[in-house]
Structure to design on (491 residues):
């Protein structure tokens, strides 16, 4: 019995690698629904020259074989051979393999799109109608990729797109007759393979409505183990700083960064870490992304409540010690966070901001006073997720002088880039790694005071923690210099 070797690589592309071992000839002999039911991926068809056929399969490690082999023999009218076992992600490979085949997605476009997103660990997908066709892209590992790359035969027209939109609007209880105004909503989708929560945004466009969907509960940073505090990737001093701050019983801790920098994962991991303690935790989210045991989660409904601040008395009646607020987006939510943080509660919140300085500037713009900020804010975490190198195809690269100078690399420091190989599907990518800058105490006060005096001290504006982490990741080959520069906006 031969085992198929699947080299460890980036998760989303590793699956597509196993999927690419499957031949369409073998898939013709067994339908996808049966492959999923029996937990098998068809690989190859052999002919012995006397008209006797054998089909080989990769089996799911957890399934009992004898019975399934008999069923497969019956379904394929051929001999069956086991070519290997795989427990993790076999089902994702089955989905990706069958998406290579020609079929019509007229009636089930939504299912096919969600299967593909799940199999790739995509965080979002987008439909963008243009003059000639409808463009369909997914965000995988933080990068936008065309669906064509993974599902070349996923054909759909305007009708099936419209039908999918209607189904989504229905699931999210949106107005089906509204075509001229933007709409937002959330809903859940469940099938045998996975359960996912969807957050929709629909806006009218010249050639039809644009649809953007955020997938919550799938993706590389959404498994429950990724919510472990110890897996957030803080170094020793950062980890002890965060632990010290989240153990205080009042004040505000902010998680800041651009879109897709892992803010809500860090925030939720801290809440989860605290939920084991003898404290009451209430979290206000828009929407609830993941269920957290031991945390009372309230979903914002701004249709019924007038504003975020209307929730404050409701939450305070729940007698919380710690309050989590998904994101500060406006004056209202900023006021909410700082009022709660200055009345004997510890508040953890997220905020979209490139840097600590820009986060503080926005809070002042939202009408908070300098004194309120100085007295309430304990810690600001600024973070990024950086695309990592595939470790199977690392190649040394000298790197530009400017970059070497910027990251203070010595002449002995080597830098690396991935050239692309089979295990990363020639993308060179190997998942993403987080980097952090933590600002607290006197430095944070100096920044806030600097801004209110007209100019924050330049030397304090540099995210030193992020630069230091990037430097270490560059010289160990974990990331390429190009990605490091991109993550700090210097590409
Ligand atoms: Zn590679």
């Amino acid at each position: 019995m031969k085992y198929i070797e699947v080299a460890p690589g980036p998760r989303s592309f590793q699956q597509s690698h196993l999927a690419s071992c499957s031949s369409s000839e073998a898939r013709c002999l067994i339908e996808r629904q049966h492959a999923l039911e029996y937990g098998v991926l068809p690989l190859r068809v052999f002919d012995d020259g006397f008209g006797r056929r054998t089909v080989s399969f990769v089996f799911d490690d957890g399934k009992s074989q004898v019975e399934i082999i008999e069923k497969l023999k019956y379904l394929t009218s051929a001999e069956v051979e086991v070519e290997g076992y795989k427990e993790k992600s076999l089902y994702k490979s089955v989905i990706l393999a069958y998406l290579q085949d020609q079929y019509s997605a007229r009636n089930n476009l939504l299912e096919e799109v969600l299967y593909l997103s799940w199999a790739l660990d995509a965080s979002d997908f987008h439909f963008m109608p243009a003059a000639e066709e409808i463009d369909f892209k997914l965000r995988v590992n933080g990068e936008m990729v065309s669906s064509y790359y993974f599902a070349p035969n996923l054909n759909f027209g305007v009708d099936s797109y419209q039908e999918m939109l209607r189904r989504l609007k229905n699931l999210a209880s949106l107005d089906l007759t509204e075509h001229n105004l933007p709409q937002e909503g959330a809903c859940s989708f469940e099938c045998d393979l996975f359960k996912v929560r969807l957050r929709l945004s629909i806006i009218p466009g010249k050639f039809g409505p644009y649809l953007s969907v955020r997938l919550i509960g799938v993706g590389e940073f959404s498994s429950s183990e990724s919510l472990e505090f110890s897996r957030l990737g803080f170094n020793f001093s950062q980890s002890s700083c965060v632990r010290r701050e989240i153990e205080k019983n009042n004040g505000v801790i902010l998680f800041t960064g651009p879109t897709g920098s892992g803010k809500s994962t860090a925030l939720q991991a801290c809440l989860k870490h605290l939920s084991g303690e003898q404290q009451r935790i209430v979290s206000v989210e828009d929407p609830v992304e993941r269920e957290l045991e031991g945390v009372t989660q309230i979903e914002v409904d701004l249709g019924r409540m007038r504003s975020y601040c209307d929730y404050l008395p409701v939450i305070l009646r729940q007698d919380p010690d710690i309050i989590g607020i998904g994101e500060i987006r406006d004056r209202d939510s900023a006021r909410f966070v700082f009022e709660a943080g200055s009345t004997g509660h510890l508040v953890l919140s997220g905020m979209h901001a490139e840097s600590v300085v820009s986060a503080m500037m926005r809070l002042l713009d939202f009408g908070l006073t300098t004194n309120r900020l100085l007295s309430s804010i304990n810690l600001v975490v600024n973070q990024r997720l950086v695309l990592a190198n595939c470790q199977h195809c690392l190649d040394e690269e000298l790197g530009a002088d400017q970059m070497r100078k910027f990251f203070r690399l010595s002449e002995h420091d080597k830098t690396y880039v991935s050239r692309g190989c089979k295990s990363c599907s020639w993308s060179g990518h190997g998942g993403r790694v987080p980097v952090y800058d933590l600002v607290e105490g006197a430095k944070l006060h100096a920044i806030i005071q600097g801004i209110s005096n007209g100019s924050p001290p330049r030397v304090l504006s540099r995210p030193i923690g992020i630069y230091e982490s990037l430097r270490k990741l560059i010289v160990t080959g974990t990331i390429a210099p190009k990605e490091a520069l991109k993550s700090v906006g210097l590409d």
Summary: Residues 390, 392-393, 418, 420-421, 423-424, 428 surround zinc ion (CB under 6 Å).
